[in-house]
Amino acid sequence: MDDTGTDSYDVVVAGGGIAGLTTALVLGRGRRRVAVVDAGSPRNSAAGHVHGYPGREGMPPRDLIAEVRREAAGYGVQLVRGTVASAQVPDAGPGEVRLEDGRRLAFRHLVLATGLRDVIPDLAGAAERWGRDLLQCPYCHGWETADRPLAVLGTAESSIQQALLVSTLSDDVTLIVQPGLEPDAEALDKLQVMGVDVVRGAARALKAPNDALAAVVLEDGREVPCEAVFCEPGADASSALVEDLGCALNEDGTIDTNSLGATSVSRVWAAGNAADPARQVVTAAGDAYRMAVSLNAILLQEDVAERLAAPRQPAAP
């Protein structure tokens, strides 16, 4: 803590999902002073299990986060419950984040691992089914839904590819084509050859008697029987903190970074879904590891430069 009462760190990580914690774990093992600020509401909290993560297959997401938090704390990483409200990154000298409760943390570098928010379809019952039988990723949930009647909501251009992928899971797959998203002749041929039925109409609700999905209800009252439905949700990566910092953004609203993970703002980095909505748990961890190694290399360069610039005693004759 400095003379202003502000705790000082080599790196402050905003966000404690798998990307933020992996960053902190790697840097903590590198003997860096690191703080992770997290409000405790990860993107995948609605999902029951993590899949495709070697050694952690089927583990509940919150259990995985708790385990990595324990591991990071073992290397001296400070876990701070809260939300970063604002940040200042001067051209020289320590930067500072201010938490919503007024606490302040000084840093040499800042990592944005703030994730994103899924924008699910505007259907009655969607919020209650999300992560249970209203799903996004066939790689995350495909095994558990195999050989059952499945539906795909045609909410985006990528829904055609999603329906084709889902068709490898079951022989009973229906693509519900929303108005304005009619597949072209080539796409229809692909769907047909893979055995995907095509139903046209706007979806209105998810029917789930006895708390189990039974059908997608269309605006005209028709029902498409299914026991799970896949969709491509929207992604909202907007953040007052990112806007405050002025980081350059990609077209989808995520934070633009270079190949190392550095943003357009000096000493500010981004990891996980904040920089790429397609990163799954395992890839978010891998990318965060690689970014942390690059960040530690920059910290080392700064350490060397500082010592070279400091007055030194002349060498003994």
From TrEMBL:
Q: Name one GO molecular function term.
A: thioredoxin-disulfide reductase (NADPH) activity
Pfam families xrefs: Pyr_redox_2
> InterPro entries per the record?
FAD/NAD-bd_sf, FAD/NAD-binding_dom, Ferredoxin-NADP_redctase_2
Print the keywords alphabetically. Flavoprotein, Oxidoreductase
> What's the domain of life for this entry?
Bacteria
Q: Which reaction does it catalyse?
A: [thioredoxin]-dithiol + NADP(+) = [thioredoxin]-disulfide + NADPH + H(+)
All copies of the FAD/NAD(P)-binding domain together span 9-285
* Name of this protein: Thioredoxin reductase
UniProt source species? Arthrobacter saudimassiliensis
The protein's gene is named trxB_3
